[in-house]
Description:
The chain is of the alpha/beta class. It folds into 2 domains: 16-280, Alanine racemase (TIM Barrel, Alpha-Beta Barrel); 284-343 and 366-452, Lyase, Ornithine Decarboxylase, Chain A, domain 1 (Beta Barrel). It is 26% helix and 19% strand. The chain contains 13 helices and 17 strands. The chain has helices at 16-33, 50-53, 65-74, 121-130, 139-144, 146-154, 214-234, 253-267, 277-280, 308-311, 314-317, 332-339, 447-452; strands spanning 11-15, 36-40, 59-62, 111-115, 133-136, 159-163, 201-205, 237-239, 270-273, 284-295, 300-304, 329-330, 373-379, 387-393, 402-405, 426-430, 439-443. The strands form 2 sheets. Strands 1, 10, 11, 12, 13, 14, 15, 16 and 17 form a 9-stranded mixed β-sheet that branches. An 8-stranded parallel β-barrel has the order 2-3-4-5-6-7-8-9, surrounded by 5 helices. Strand 10 and strand 11 (300-304) form a beta hairpin. The radius of gyration is 24 Å and the shape is globular. The structure holds pyridoxal-5'-phosphate. The site of pyridoxal-5'-phosphate has 15 residues, from helix 9.
Amino acid sequence: MMRYEELNTPSYIVQERKLKENLEILRRVREEAGCKILLAQKAFSMYRVYSLIAEYLDGTTASGIFEAKLAAEEFVREKAPVAFSVENAFRRNENEAEEEGSLPDLRKTPENHVFEPAYKNTEMRELCEICSHLYFNSLAQLEAHRSLWEPRQKAGDLEVALRINPEYSTQEGHAIYDPCAPGSRLGIRRSQMPEKLPEGVTGLHFHTLCEQGLEPLIETFRSVELRFASYLQEARFINLGGGHHITRPDYDVDGLISFVKEIKEKWQLEVYLEPGEAIALNAGTLITKVLDVIDTEDMPTLILDASAACHMPDVLEMPYTPPLFLAMKSGQEAYEEEQGQRVRKPETADEMVPAVCTAKTEAGKPTGASKGAWVRLASRTCLAGDVIGLYKLPAVPKVGDILTFGDMAIYSMVKNNTFNGMALPDIVLEHDREADDRFELVKRFGYQDFKERLS
Ligand SMILES: Cc1ncc(COP(=O)(O)O)c(C=O)c1O
């Protein structure tokens, strides 16, 4: 165990307390709505905390064989009455008879779901051994692997579902994260569905949202009801995918609970949600050290030991500007507005003059709203665009200062890379207690980790 001052930079620090707060919200949804909730490992695979998550959720979903194996090995309930082994993993229904409609209790072996657009034969064999639910993206894939999954399905060890494409887009201008965007390969369109669900298929699945609230889910489900009603009648369960920002403070949690209940009652379906982000939303930070300060024409540019390209790739892919602790403002737009380079559309009648450059000091520097210093936070890689963002801070940080980025647990550790031979950040767990030495170094990566992935 370590104290904060002893931590290395860069480090991802995952806060157990915040994780538990998120999980409490999800547990409430699960219990009050009577649905099952899975951890989408693609967003957060810090398996050191899987046994904690397993106390709150029903299982995991995987994007392929590796995540499915990780869950089989690590997502175990410490208080499980039956010792975990791959052999007994998903013999759920034998001595665990549940009352019809009641929520299974969390002492049972966790469920292990997997969806991948296409599986290899060799993987399918193993997936059938370790998974409780398999999702197929096409009828061709379903049939190609039938000889492997069908015996397990008939024995009651496995459930099989089809991913459908609701053809209802709720994310304009965000095609990279929109499985309903034109040309999408994800999910079977209504026109390609057979008349009835194929033999052995008991579930339906859709995933269309990304960081969204309840309304887009309701709209999407209405579209599913319109197009896929007969399949909803035939199926035993439906998985509503991820992208639900359930643990964001403005999410309508009660609305979600009512909506899930409505689906269950109207269609007599078991309902699954498989959020990733919501589980570890705002539950992690990334600390980084200032290594140099370069004077550029517009503002000081700081070189950090963290990199957008290597340690927070979504900053460049999404793209977005991550929150920075103590920043007064952030973002290119805020900066341009303040400099008078961009005129913000007035939102109210008495806000007709943009709040920029209204007063200047004698030296020509903006005052008022412009107190503080703009800095560009960048990395020590060779990529010119490896810039995390523009931030206005109370003062320009100095070499050796530590900066803290927020919301760094999700889509960070799972996506990072060693481009330029950059070291991967340490992974640290901040335990939920008051002691100074509450920081556990879970993993430190070194040169060998870099070398191992190359040849
Ligand atoms: C099929 C599927 N399920 C769940 C998720 C998790 O989504 P999120 O992390 O946005 O909740 C994703 C994310 O891409 C996904 O593709």
